[in-house]
Each structure stands twice: as structure tokens, then as C-alpha cells.
Amino acid sequence: MNQQDINDLHTLMEFEVNRTSPPAGFPVLPDIPAGRYTDPRFYELEQENIWRKSWLFAAHIDELPEPGCFILWENAGQPVLIVHTTSGEIKAFYNTCSHRGAPVMTEKSGQRSSLTCNYHGWSYNYDGELMSVRDPEDFNGLDLSTRGLKPVRCERFGNLIWVNFSLEAPPLLDWLGPIADEWQEFQFDSCRLIGRHIFDLNCNWKVAMEANTEVYHVRSIHAKTVALTLDDRRNVNTFYPNGHGRMVAPSRKDAAAARTIAPPPGLKEIETVGPIGRECTQSYGVFPNWVSPLSNYFIPPLQFWPNGINKCRFEVWTMAADWGDGPKPELVNMWTNQDGSELGAVLLEDTQFGEAIQKSMESDAFTGVPLSYQEARIYHWNQAADRMIGIDNIPEELRVAQVMGEEWIYPNEPRLSQAEVSAG
Ligand code: FES
Ligand SMILES: [Fe+2]
User: Fold this and answer.
1) What angle do CA 132, 136, 140 make, to 5 degrees?
2) Sign of the torsion angle spanned by Cα atoms 174, 176, 178, 184
3) I need a labelling partner for 363 at 20 to 30 A (CA). Which of 82, 89, 128, 315 fits?
């Protein structure tokens, strides 16, 4: 982040703490219809569109470090096989044999010289080409060249592997837009994987995610944890194209030294991280389901995967600077207890109401969610979701109005001129 951006963020922090109403011109946010969390029609629209057209973070290169390594990945519903090819590329395919549809690989991960289906022995190379079938003389005119594994788009951002089921989606870097530049200082291309754990929650995936998309909740549910150090009234939200967002909140002045996350022994610093990443909570939402605070010690994304309309899976990752030849740090995952069996204290606070909120949303009592300016990243996400689904494809009662115009989307920043006026 360059010095001008840093200065602007500090200006905006003071603007935020001093304002007595939402910024001039900020739209009134209509209620988010409760049906978006409970109506099977909306769930289906998400399945067909959001999960089929978005770039989804799926794996870290440490999980398939050498040629011949593969992992299975089904978090987005469809069976995917991610492989490390002999030429060193990472590729992804549907884990679906072209013969009778058996899974080509059945183990969750491994290393092989070829991909051989266990049902009748059809064998593919790591580029997905069908190389041989058993008893070929019994097939009439079977053209092996047209029976390879069906590819899934797969691109890397540094050591992170992303997939996309759509052939029409833009390249990953275009999708990330300005975020890709801002992430350079965190050195994604040398980060190592410390831990990856997944937990079942009894609520719609967006209920869980939205608890991590605003700081309005901090002073109540994190009263004894995050609130002791995070200056939520100085939080600055930024709205990026494609529904992505960022929050930057400084540490409270009286607690600046007490960062919530102390680096465990053995962890190296990501030295290129600038002052915002060191002194503030700098957290990114990448549409549709990535939330991650980034710092000089950690790249720790949280991900939220639907598992039915009222259930989701919460995946928590910890990545850190390369520890070189030394032993892997003892930490299992910064979001869990030390054996990885339970979420850590802050995430237990964040997830505690999910099941009850889901019940409320399904009850006759609840019709919609009125969001404050502080919670506007949630609204921005929902607007982007509707555009991706196609607004006309959504039943009218389930849509959100597109009230946040381009003027609020990065690089536009109308609050800066307002801040200068109020500072005189
Ligand atoms: S289903 Fe794979 S070889 Fe028959
Ligand atoms: Fe929280």
C-alpha cells in the first residue's frame, strides 16, 4: 500500500470516528429479504450462479507439492480433482470418469504416476487425457482423444490455488482487481500452509459469513476479546468491484501494544507488510466466500460453504511466512484450539447465534434485515450477488435494490472530500 493510500486511510478513520450520521449522499439501504437465507428458490439460484461462476479458493500448493500429487475437493458441491502435473502446472478436472462416471480417484489425496479409475481401469494422464482403456477391442470406434477428463478452470495466486467452473469467467487476477495489487506485500507466493480445518454450522452460509463482514457486533459479542483492542468506530470499509470489500480498523490507542494475535514461537514475519497490516486489522472479503484479515504474521482465510439451505461448513485456514529449514511452527491453526478439534474463542463468539438466527429467519417474525452504514459491506455483497445471478432471474420479493452506485465503489471515494471539508 503506497503512502498516499495509507494517509487517506488515516484521514478516513478520523472522518469515521467524528461523523454524526452516515456520510452525505450514502443511500438508505433497503432491508435484505429474509428469504435469501431461507427460500429454496434463492438457494438454487446461488447454486447455479454464485458457485458456478466465481473464483473459489480451493487449496494450497503445500497440499500437492510435487508432480504426481493430487487432492480431491468437493466444497462447492461438484467433485473436483486438483493435480500437480509432471510439467509443474496445477490443473483441475471433474473427478468423474468418462466411462461410467465413477470417481477417478477415491482417496482424498496422494501421489501417482497416472490417474487410473478403480471401476474398470481407464487410465488418464495428469493433463486429463485418456491414455488407455481395458479391452479396447470390445469398443467400437471409441475415440480416446474425446474422452479425457473434463477440465475445471484453475489458476494460482502465489501459492494459493483457485478454481472456477465457468468458462466465461474473467481470469483470476481480473476478478480480484485492485486487491491483487494490495496483496503483493503479503507475499502469497512464498506463504506456507500451517493448518486447514472445517466445522459444521447449523445456519445458512451467509448468516455465518456476515458475522465476519462488519464490526458493528464487536462491542457486544467480543466485549472481552476483540473489543479490548479494536477501535471499531474508526473502521473504514472499502467497496471493490465484483462484490469484494475491505475493512481497516486501527487498534485502540490505549491498547495499541496488545495485538489480539501474538505470534507463536517459530513463526517468521512477512517483512514486506506495511504499517496498516502491522498496526490495524486489515481484512478482505473476496466474493463470494473468503474473509481474511492479513497481517505481518498470517494469511488466515475463513471460508463459508453451503451444505443445504440451513447448514454450512466453516473452513478456517492459517498460512504464514516460510519457516525455511526449521521445524514447522507448533501452531495447528490460529482459529482453533491446539488440537484443531474446536473453533477458538473469537470464532465461537462469532458463530454462537448462527443456529438461532436461522430459526428466526425461518419464523413468521422475521421478514428482512435492516443494515446500518457500518454493515454496508454486506449490502454491497448482496448487490453483486444479484448482478451475478441476473436480477431478472430473481423473484422480485427476494431481490435487493441496487442502491449503492458506482460512486461508492473503489477507486471512487466520496468520503475523502467530505473528510477534508469537515477538517476545514
Ligand atoms: S467408470 Fe471409470 S473405468 Fe469405468
Ligand atoms: Fe466477530
Assistant:
1) 125
2) negative
3) 315
Given a cut of 60, whether residue 136 has pLDDT beyond it is: yes
Measured distance CA(416)–CA(393) in Å, rounded: 37
117 lines ligand 1 (CB under 6 A): yes
Burial class (CB in 10 A: 0-12, 13-18, 19+), 27: middle
CB 112 near ligand 1, within 6 Å: no
Residue 258 has a pLDDT of 54
Query: DSSP string of 197-262?
Result: EEEEESS-HHHHHHTTS-STTHHHHTTTTGGGTB-GGG-EEEE-GGG-EEEEEEBPGGGTT--SSP
Q: What residue owns the CA closest to ligand 1's atom 1? A: 100
pLDDT band, very low/low/confident/very high, at 262 (cuts 50, 70, 90): low
pLDDT band at 421 (very low <50, low <70, confident <90, very high): confident
Largest alpha-carbon pair distance within the chain?
A: 85
Question: How large is the average pLDDT for residues 154-180?
Answer: 98
Give dist(CA 412, CA 424) in Å, integer.
Answer: 21
Q: Which atom of ligand 1 is nearest to the CA of 121?
A: 3
Q: What's residue 156's pLDDT?
A: 98
22: cell is: 452516515
Q: Side chain identity at 303, as an amino acid letter?
A: Q
pLDDT tens digit string along 56-87? 999 999 999 999 999 999 999 999 999 999 99
119 lines ligand 1 (CB under 6 A): yes
